[in-house]
Amino acid sequence: MKMSAARLSVEPGLDPYDAVRRDRAELASAAGGVVGLRLYGFAGDTLVLGRYHRRPHGHGVSLARRLSGGRVVPGGEGFVGLGLALPHRSALVGDDPRALGPEQVMNRCVRGLLDGLRRLGVEPFYPGRDLVTAGGRTLAVLGLEIAPDGTTLFEATLAVGRDLAALPALLERADPEGVTCARFWQPAEVVSVGALTRRTCSLEDVAGVVAQGYHDLFQVHFTAVSTPAVGAPEPGWLDVCAPRPDLDRSARLASMLGAIEVHARRDAGGAIAAVQLAGDFLASSTSVTRLEETLVGVMPTAGAVHARVVEAFAGRDEFLLGVEPRELTDTVLRALA
Questions:
Q1: 137 CB contacts (<8 Å, ≥6 apart)?
Q2: Domain topology for 244-336
Q3: Most exposed: 47, 103, 223, 242, by fewest CB within 10 Å?
Q4: Contact in structure between 106 and 130 (CB atoms under 8 Å)
């Protein structure tokens, strides 16, 4: 597939509050047929939440929240963020938006990143799901969002000068109350580009080889652009999954990606009054919103809840990765028991 318009933005020292605005701007351009590739670094230590993580309220660490779901990761010095905005989920391979199923998208989108890492002297491996490894150790964490209009955002956090074992120290400062569920990586489980190559790689170095990877694999012809003006920051975005005191029941499920939490409340008649999903899962945001809304008023029986879960993720453009529908149903029921 030949792509006539593609933009490459390299953004060092990005304010975490600006990050979601940048991604929304790239998705708006993608809706007009323009592919956008962003590589960026955050200014200062940053805790990067997925779309569905509950916001902590500690101090001394900046917070960012991705448009995609997935795990909590560290950001700031030593880490490079990547965002690839596409007109539709199959844009890298063809013109038919449904050429790829939602579950196949990350497998294709990650290939430009893998090719770029090889150019830096790293031998990466994509074992599936949401991780990139090297020598069996985690090197990058991936995310995916498919918007209601079909535009698609693939995201990655790459350990370049530091590794993902930096996360526990960030969480101790940002989340002393343990509000945010997150998987802690041990030093033996993770690695960085610098540790593998024994050299320092700048943001510009990474951006150059990754852009070349997408160019060679998918014939994406990038034009370097300056950081676009996107208006005022969007600090309220951090609170989209804030803890809700009215939800007095909860349950947690250990999943392939980490953990999923269900917070809920029943009304006076025993029906579901409110539900909030939180945690490390990857899912289309429209599906999650639909599920939370359609569960309201339902009696918490296995048949009724499972029917809503299946319906929420049944569309051809919907996806739920890291947990099976039946497991999610059981977790909702446990929260409401």
A1: 188, 189, 190, 191
A2: Enolase-like; domain 1 (3.30.390)
A3: 223
A4: yes
Q: Report pLDDT for 298.
A: 98
Closest CA to 177 of 4, 57, 42: 57
Residue in 285, 315, 255 with CA at minimum distance from that of residue 130: 255
Backbone angle region of 326, left / alpha / beta, with phi > 0 → left and psi within -120 to 50 → alpha: alpha
Closest CA to 52 of 63, 62, 64, 67: 67
Mean pLDDT taken over the chain: 94
28 Cβ neighbours under 8 A, 6+ residues apart? none
Candidates 295, 321, 323; CA nearest to 307 is 295
3-state class (DSSP) for residue 207: helix
Distance of alpha carbon 115 from alpha carbon 218, whole angstroms: 11
- The CATH class that applies to domain 6-238 reads alpha beta
User: CA of 190: how far to CAs of 19, 92, 112, 134, 161, in Å?
Assistant: 25, 29, 21, 9, 12
**What are the start and end residues of each CATH 3.30.930.10 domain in the chain?**
6-238
Q: How many CB atoms are located within 10 Å of the residue 221 CB? A: 15
At residue 233, the pLDDT reads 67
* Token code pair at residue 164: 């993902």
Please give the structure tokens belonging to residue 167: 């996360």
**Predicted confidence band at 3 (pLDDT cuts at 50, 70, 90)?**
low
| Residue at 145: amino acid letter | E
For residue 242, is pLDDT > 90?
A: no
